[in-house]
Amino acid sequence: MQFFGGSEISPSPPAPTASGNNGHMMYVFNRNGVCLLYREWNRPLRTLDAQQDQKLMFGLLFSLKSLTAKMDPTSAVEKGNLGMPQLPGQGCSFHSFRTNTYKLSFMESPSGIKIILVTHPRTGDLRESLKYIYNLYVEYVVKNPLYTPGSPIRCELFNTTLDQYVRGIS
Amino acid sequence: MVREVSESCVDSLLTEMVACYCNRFYANKPELAARRIEAIGYQVGHQLSERYTMERPRFTDHLEAIKFICKDFWSELFKKQIDNLKTNHRGTFVLQDNKFRWLARMSIDPSTDNVSPLEDITSPTAESKAAQAMSMHLYFPCGIIRGALSNLGIPCAVSADISNLPACSFVVRIKA
């Protein structure tokens, strides 16, 4: 019997190619709206304090999720009222939006972990990259015996691996 | 066909076992918690060595038994051998695993920029707490080694050193 099951981290998905470091900032929220992680790589202008910023971001995601599910023209399921919380994975969900100055990519896991990555507007589809970041979260945070679930992420291994990966996203 | 156990499952089980003994059963008695965790490791090592030496002839000396732990036993457990073995030829052996699987994901962030005001991660208490938590996870593998060697007729004491993570050195002192 072996204490082994091959849970090595899968190789990084190929990131779309362009030049320079395109990652601006990243948020990780749990299902209760607690911001577990906020990382910043390129954010010259900050207009809000951290707590307001995180509340606003979580509120935006909540509203956008509700709106996209409500507007879904293909689903015949009873949609409930706008703003009604949905289970992770339920209904349709957006994965990104783009403005003239940035692109916001979003992913939610079945356990309610939300990963938000804000990048340069010309960045390509980052769904695979977000999955990979979630994989890093599972490997280096969830499996870290020193981490208490629900508390802010303070795992050096996760932070360094994440930094390295996001700097490579283009 | 080799039977395998999910690594994630074992990792979680080990984490939970240590957490239970340290935070619930013996919350205020870390020495007792350590002893219990080591005792569980001892039983596991004892049984595993019985299983992995089934087809082997008896070991002629201590070094042969230690080499078995470093190569075959470690390979069965972690699909890799011990990276380095040293001895002083007076009953002390140092087994070094350069990337010990059960420590590979263990880390805390030493920086202060993302610390809550209530808890300073760089304070000596927080640092020593983290070190203590890490060392608690080493009593189980130490117990496994001690149990395996004990079953091979070698009574010993086993301790661990994690001064340069994720490398881990296990010091085996054979009792005369």
TrEMBL record, chain A:
One of its GO terms (cellular component) is Golgi apparatus. InterPro entries: Longin-like_dom_sf, TRAPPC. Keywords: Endoplasmic reticulum, ER-Golgi transport, Golgi apparatus, Transport. GO terms for biological process: endoplasmic reticulum to Golgi vesicle-mediated transport. SUPFAM superfamilies: SNARE-like. Its main location: endoplasmic reticulum. The keyword Cell cycle does not apply. Residues 1-20 are annotated as: Disordered. SMART domains: Sybindin. Pfam families: Sybindin (PF04099). Coiled coil: none annotated. The keyword Lipoprotein does not apply. It comes from the Eukaryota. It is found in: Endoplasmic reticulum; Golgi apparatus, cis-Golgi network. PANTHER family: TRAFFICKING PROTEIN PARTICLE COMPLEX SUBUNIT (PTHR23249), TRAFFICKING PROTEIN PARTICLE COMPLEX SUBUNIT 1 (PTHR23249:SF16). Part of the multisubunit transport protein particle (TRAPP) complex. Belongs to the TRAPP small subunits family. BET5 subfamily. This is Trafficking protein particle complex subunit. It comes from Glycine soja (Wild soybean). The lineage of its organism: Eukaryota, Viridiplantae, Streptophyta, Embryophyta, Tracheophyta.
From TrEMBL, chain B:
GO terms for cellular component: cis-Golgi network; trans-Golgi network; TRAPP complex. GO terms for biological process: endoplasmic reticulum to Golgi vesicle-mediated transport. InterPro entries: NO_sig/Golgi_transp_ligand-bd, TRAPP_component, TRAPPC6/Trs33. It comes from the Eukaryota. It holds the Pfam family TRAPP. Belongs to the TRAPP small subunits family. BET3 subfamily. This is Trafficking protein particle complex subunit 6B. It comes from Glycine max. The lineage of its organism: Eukaryota, Viridiplantae, Streptophyta, Embryophyta, Tracheophyta.
